[in-house]
Amino acid sequence: xxxxxxxxxxxxxxxxxxxxxxxxxxxxxxxxxxxxxxxxxxxxxxxxxxxxxxxxxxxxxxxxxxxxxxxxxxxxxxxxxxxxxxxxxxxxxxxxxxxxxxxxxxxxxxxxxxxxxxxxxxxxxxxxxxxxxxxxxxxxxxxxxxxxxxxxxxxxxxxxxxxxxxxxxxxxxxxxxxxxxxxxxxxxxxxxxxx
Length: 195
Hints:
- The chain has helices at residues 12-20, 34-43, 48-64, 92-102, 138-146, 150-155, 176-179, 184-191; strands spanning 4-7, 24-27, 72-81, 84-86, 106-117, 120-133, 169-173.
- By secondary structure, the chain is of the alpha/beta class.
- The longest helix has 17 residues, at 48-64.
């Protein structure tokens, strides 16, 4: 199995998941303009699944063009609420608005991974988990946000499932690795094919 890859993401959580699964990685963020790409894809009528996959692929391809023969992993996650994509918050007011939208409702978290080599995708996988948020009062949502530090808040699509975020949900269906942004079992399975 390949045990050293390049991760085209600045997500510390994704790096940690890989390392905990015996895959060492060098981090090299792709720094693509995700919002601009999402906007363009939405205008074309792309589904949340397609948007997640395309962003993961763009990240992996961008870095792998510069790293001949190296295996590069790109990843992306989006929240799908009734077909509408909810992006990460850029401030605490936006975070509260997102929680209000999700409040008492079921949404999907879609995570895509893409492996590229020499600038082209050689493998990809997309998985989806369903999360049902409890019906909560505004004060409860504010209290939850007050317990979350900025770094966590902006990195995890408003909730950190392995931490405080679990308390927001009445039901979680799907792979926890997917919810954390990296379906690692499938990545390991694919990498195991490389001698």
